[in-house]
Amino acid sequence: MGKSRTKRFKRPQFSPTGDCQAEAAANGTEGEEDDEPAAELLEKLQHPSAEVRECACAGLARLVQQRPALPGLARRDAVRRLGPLLLDPSLAVRETAAGALRNLSACGGFEVCDDMVTKDIMTPLVALLKECSAGLDSNEMSPQEKKDQNRNSIENIANEAMNVLWNICECSSRAVSIFNKEGCLEIVLKYLSRFSTNVDLAISVAYCLQTVTEDNPELLNSFTAPALHVLESAMLSPVSSMDYILLKTLVAGTVWNLKDIIPSKSQAEIINAILKILSEVLEVDAGEIVIQMKEAETQRLKAATETEEIQENANGDNLIEDDEMEEIPHKRKVRRKTFISDLLPPTDKELREAIALLTAQQTALEIIVNMCCSEDPSDDEWEELSSSDESDAFMENSFSECGGQLLSPLCLSHEVHTAFTNYLIPKKIFEKTAFPNSIAVDLCSRSPTWKSLVRKMNTIQCRALVCLQSLVSLLDVDHLGGAAALQTLAQHLSQLLFSQPDFAKHVDFLEAISSALRALLQTMASKNISQCMTPDQLMTLCTAGIHSSNTGVRVNVVSILGITGSVLAKEDGTLETLKTIGCFLLEVATKDPSLVVAGEALDALFDVFADGKEAERASIQIKLLSALKEFQPVFKTKGLTSLQQRCWPWLQSTEVLTGAGRFLPRWLTHMAVGRRPHSSLFDSAET
């Protein structure tokens, strides 16, 4: 089996109708009746008529969006049956077959994509991409009418095929290896070079390139000067339409992935070019653009309807009606067709532009996060570490250095730091943390075709909060505007959080804002800047967050409680609050099913009760020492059980076992003799 590719941000599954997940949730059963349409459609793929094969592919493109249908399609070997149709004599069949595979790879996820690679979908897919590339070249000298017709068909096929390649490479490292070995880079760069005449194809290529250039040293060595020139041309295109904004943003992300092969003398220039693009993208008021685009669509449809009615009335005046003909009531024609949209993105110009802008802003924020953070070690690195005597030391050091997070913030290079400042990146990120424009949200919510944009706008806010977390962790207080600016930021985040009574229901938002608050409060505590959250607000957040199903949220609120508690422990008159915090953390440490959360709670307890007279009085009154003594063997057993169950929790549990597991006995000993050790969980432990 192949390996899934770990991503800092995972893109949502593609569904042209937007209801792939809804249909899956609505129908959780499968039976023989589910296989009947699949069997019929798959059988028609072998029909001698190209039109029948095309219709069968289109039907499968719709069917694969229904999650319960996927097992039946797998049993009937749908991939092996669709694969050869990528090279069908009919261009229409090729396009619809590629569209069906695109939907299958997007809705199926990692397992389906890995199965597609196992069933050798890459062979016909790469062959199709090569044929399309050759076909575009051969059509350059064709007669004009034939050239336009064939080239459009070939480019449409290439666009569908590129989306299949992107989906598979994003999920499967084996697919990326095949991409490298088959020399696909040269093919896709040729497609990208046509960005001035087919921006849709160029965008699909840019998505794919951003994926395959991530953590792929073998491919980076294949980038020649002409290849880099193609990227540069696309990234610096003067066109300012929303499609081109998205294209330039995606290419900027690809160029950032290539930073290791860019000569050092050009690094500053490239970084400035990247951040200039990201800054321009974030500067656009997406809410206002959505409102403008929606209004433009309304006016266009109104004008089209009026023109259509005028034409119908004019034609009606010239008709001689048959007395025997039954009178048909006048009905306004439905503008949107119901069949051909199964494989393609939205065709409405205004909606496409709004989606392109929102996607560009989300991508820009994700690129900035990647600039601020190192990535997870690869699977192979984990395997080497797990079999090495140095693995424990590595995990202890790495978690110590990154504050318990697998994504460790790095010190920004001088070039990146300067570009961040010059292009006002922190300010623009702060602006994006606000809630989406309420008028835009209302307009989109009332339109079925625009409704998905509400989620996109909310996602941008969440990404901005994650960016804010990284910047607060990285930049000096002075570069963030000083103590007053941090207090204003804390008030802003508190207002965002508590202005939503049901904030606990919005898991993505809660995880993002709690991460930002955690980083901000940690920075403020380290600089002795007074914090703005009241004890009541603090406990409201933590009580709601600790019941979240999201482990990240629970870790964040426990850490926030530890940070705030350690500050309060040094102040007078905080006994009751410290007792509340201590009881809360103790309950989390002993009852939370996640070893990571339990370890974070122990770490927070160590911090809160490490020093201070009020902390000592509180620990005695809540009987902290005896509770932890009772918990010590349970914690050790719980950790060992978790190690035996799953591999990934092992990586996370190592933090707890190497840190809390070693520090807890030491801490209890010091407590028993009335001494307080330093609160760092990852000090050099005596073993």
TrEMBL record:
It comes from the Eukaryota. Residues 1-37 are annotated as: Disordered. Pfam families: HEAT_EZ, TPR_SYO1. One of its GO terms (biological process) is ribosomal large subunit biogenesis. Residues 1-11 have a biased composition (Basic residues). Gene3D superfamilies: Leucine-rich Repeat Variant. GO terms for molecular function: unfolded protein binding. Transmembrane segments: none annotated. Residues 415-638 form the SYO1-like TPR repeats domain. Belongs to the nuclear import and ribosome assembly adapter family. This is HEAT repeat-containing protein 3 isoform X1.
